[in-house]
Amino acid sequence: MNAPLKPNSFRSGPDENGRFGIYGGRFVAETLMPNILELERAYREARNDPAYVAEMASHRTHYIGRPSPLYFAERLTEHFGGAKIYLKREELNHTGSHKVNNVLGQILLARRMGKKRIIAETGAGQHGVATATLCARFGLECIVYMGAVDVARQAPNVFRMKMLGATVVPVQSGAKTLKDAMNEALRDWVTNVETTFYCIGTVAGPHPYPAMVRDFQSVIGEETRQQMQEAEGRLPDSLIACVGGGSNAIGLFHPFLDDPSVEIYGVEAAGHGLDKLHAASISGGKPGVLHGNRTYLLMDEDGQIQEGHSISAGLDYPGIGPEHSWLNDIGRVTYLSATDDEALEAFQLMSKVEGIIPALECAHAMAKVAELAPTKPKDHLMVVNLSGRGDKDVPQVAEMLGTKL
Fold first, then answer.
1. Which 8-state DSSP code applies to residue 60?
2. How far is CA 373 from CA 58, 161, 251, 328, 358, in A?
3. Is 276 considered catalytic here?
4. Catalytic residue (one of 90, 121, 184, 223)
């Protein structure tokens, strides 16, 4: 296959059909197509409406607590002995992760569209908690679909969602994880499309979701550009973020895609290893169609979707956002992978060296920092997106380390 053409700008996609090269698109049932088109129109109008932009900016400041800090991790820098490491502290946002950036934008859009019933899917529970929180804030009905396996391993977040007034629906089909939760949410949307807004949590799904969610999350990278200029007087030399569906990663990456001096790394979940059970869709998958878009997927030789595995409930989706697939093929972003064991080691190191307990998701990114940072000179500026806090993972990690709480 010929190599994809490189565009004049890496930030101009998707095209009018919602495609990033051969990826993305809009593969949905006829029942949903009118509502997808309505959503696209509504989002296009909203983002050009100063009132919508001002309302989101106000809530970002006074409800979420933005801007999130860009923190110099002095002890980690000393520990690895190479690059100067900065952490973008998305875990300090209200609700404890980057997910709230996207949910705020979608909930404000749902209100403009007159939708009062909100549905969502969630893996680790961070998107579910953010959705339940914003629904409580604006008095909207909230239903969250969550795989039964994830309900068990993310019990603290399930309780938080219920406290916030959401209905959590355990999904018993398939592997009972994130893919199956998204299947059930899509079925609900088809059935109740006239009254319901589907708040998708990552940069996947049919167009316009991948571009819309990316736009809401790009506040991460936009703030990082400004904060690094203030701290060091120049752009960072490298960016690193974990990738499941890839919303925190594209949020950090996108504002830097047209800066050739900036190296960009996404880190997938290698689970037990790329030759065993894992959730590394780019490293171990191939292009196919799932949940309304074409992208890299974990599939068997017959084209059937395989279950992803990761120690992190937020990374075990068997696909990845279509823009990441395109960025991989054109070579703008380098995608690496970290195993469960590497992530668990990074989880403990980060906690003990910096006094910050990271989510297992971003511990995958930290595992690759441990490899990359020592190879860089001391004036190399490296930014890691700390996309969520690890409180939700403490019971699971304690069990794996043989500690009974």
1. I
2. 37, 37, 22, 22, 18
3. no
4. 121
387 is an active site residue: yes
Q: Is 121 a catalytic residue?
A: yes
DSSP for 357-377 reads: -B-HHHHHHHHHHHHHGGGS-
CATH number of 19-61+99-208: 3.40.50.1100
What is the pLDDT confidence band of residue 2, given thresholds at 50, 70 and 90? low
Number of other CB atoms surrounding residue 293 within 10 Å: 27
Q: What is the mean predicted confidence (pLDDT) over 19-38?
A: 94
Tokens of 216: 């809401």
- Give the CATH architecture of domain 65-96+218-401: 3-Layer(aba) Sandwich (3.40)
**CATH topology agreement for domains 19-61+99-208 and 65-96+218-401:** yes
Res 1: pLDDT: 47
Residue 296's contacts (CB-CB under 8 Å, 6 or more residues apart) are: 281, 282, 285, 286, 287, 288, 319, 320, 324, 325, 328
Domain boundaries, the chain: 19-61+99-208, 65-96+218-401
Burial 259-288 (b: 16+ CB within 10 A, else e): eeebbbbbbbbbbeeeeebbbbbbbbbeeb
Could you please report the per-residue DSSP string of 84-100? EEEEEEGGGSTTSBTHH
Q: At what angle do helices 33-47 and 99-112 cross, to 10 degrees?
A: 100
Rounded to an integer, the average pLDDT of 296-321 is 92
Among 238, 281, 337, 387, the one annotated catalytic: 387
Tell me the Ramachandran region of residue 402: left when phi exceeds 0, alpha when psi lies from -120 to 50, beta otherwise.
Answer: left
Candidate list 84, 99, 368, 376, residue with the active-site label = 99
3-state SS, residue 219: helix
Query: In this structure, what token pair is assigned to residue 129?
Result: 């908690």
Instruction: Dig out the tokens for 322 from the structure.
Output: 């279509």
pLDDT per position as a tens digit, 51-62: 999 999 999 999
> How far apart are the C-alpha atoms of 173 and 180, rounded to whole Å?
6
